[in-house]
Write a structure and sequence with these properties.
This protein has a single domain, classed as L-arginine/glycine Amidinotransferase, Chain A, CATH 3.75.10.10. 25% of the residues lie in helices and 23% in strands. The protein has helices at 30-45, 86-89, 92-100, 139-148, 186-195, 204-208, 228-236, 247-250, and strands spanning 3-6, 51-54, 71-74, 77-80, 105-106, 121-124, 127-132, 151-156, 169-173, 176-179, 198-201, 215-217, 220-224, 240-244, 261-262. A three-stranded mixed sheet has the order 2-1-15, with helices on one face. A three-stranded mixed sheet has the order 3-4-5, covered by helices on one side. A three-stranded mixed sheet has the order 6-7-8, sandwiched between helices. It binds arginine. Arginine (ARG) is lined by residues 18-19, 22, 63, 66, 68-69, 88, 119, 164, 166-167, 252-254, 258.
Length: 264
């Protein structure tokens, strides 16, 4: 059974602006956000059949709902994030403590080595694809490879709207992934077309609706509502697609995948 970590949006809001989607004047409706988050939780624990564990939210840390950024899980090892912006760095001790008290070996990146966890590092087959530029520093990739003994391929992100790798790339299987090519620089696009033999490309409208920010569990794919072309492509490829309206979280620059962290 897939295990996933989520954090309820009790204190979620748009309190600062650290990516192009965030606009404090627009704000987020907390009640609607709660209902949308609950719908995602119900989809994951219901039809998708995942086991979701919960982390206690903390007042004053509005982005803690995005558990994908807690760090990187590899088996029973956990590498905590070191956030680029101080407004999110306050989350670090809470994430670290959860993993320490849940039986994980916590490995540390060197001080100052900026890395935003599963938001910027996603395994596809035996390869760890790692994004850099807007958030994580490219130097963190060498550290990940050293700590985990894994093959890491660095992908440079080139469109500020897709500032984390998980906003434009989503592994589906060992050599298959959803991705949005225009979010990457030319070399990264080449790396992806060499490594991802069975791509499901997201059209720009669906990428802008965070269609690549999907949760994949076996043949189930959970994504933000309204990504019609991508949904059809996934269904044609044999996936069962579940749509959940996550509009309040898009205002913060996140959707389904960012709200979850795979624990297995
Ligand atoms: N507002 C959050 C930030 O900018 C959104 C994080 C989304 N997380 C992700 N894994 N893409 O940090």
């Amino acid at each position: 059974m897939a295990r996933i970590l989520m954090c309820p949006p009790d204190y979620f809001g748009i309190e600062y602006e650290i990516n192009p989607w965030m606009d404090r004047r627009k704000g987020a409706d907390r009640e609607r956000a709660m209902a949308q988050w609950e719908a995602l939780y119900a989809t994951l624990t219901g039809p998708v059949g995942a086991n979701v564990e919960l982390l206690d939210p903390v007042q004053g840390l509005p982005d803690m709902v995005f558990t994908a950024n807690a760090g990187l899980v590899a088996g029973k090892q956990f590498i905590p994030s070191r956030f680029r912006y101080p407004v999110r760095a306050g989350e670090e001790p809470f994430f670290r403590r959860w993993f320490e008290t849940h039986g994980y070996e916590v490995l540390s990146l060197p001080e100052g080595c900026i890395f935003e966890g599963a938001g910027d590092a996603l395994a596809c087959g035996a390869t760890l694809y790692a994004g850099y530029h807007f958030r994580s520093h490219v130097s963190s990739h060498r550290e990940l490879s050293r700590l985990l003994g894994a093959r890491v391929l660095s992908l440079e992100l080139s469109d500020p709207r897709f500032y984390h790798l998980d906003t434009c790339f989503c592994p589906l299987g060992t050599d298959s992934a959803i991705y949005y090519p225009d979010a990457f620089d030319r070399y990264a696009r080449q790396v992806l077309s060499d490594g991802i033999r069975q791509p499901v490309l997201a059209p720009s409208e669906d990428a802008a609706r965070f269609g690549c920010n999907a949760v994949v569990v076996d043949r189930h794919v959970v994504l933000n509502a309204g990504c019609t072309a991508l949904r059809n492509r996934l269904q044609e490829a044999g996936y069962t697609v579940h749509e959940v309206d996550l509009s309040e979280f898009l205002k913060s620059g996140g959707a389904a995948k960012c709200l979850t962290l795979r624990l297995d």
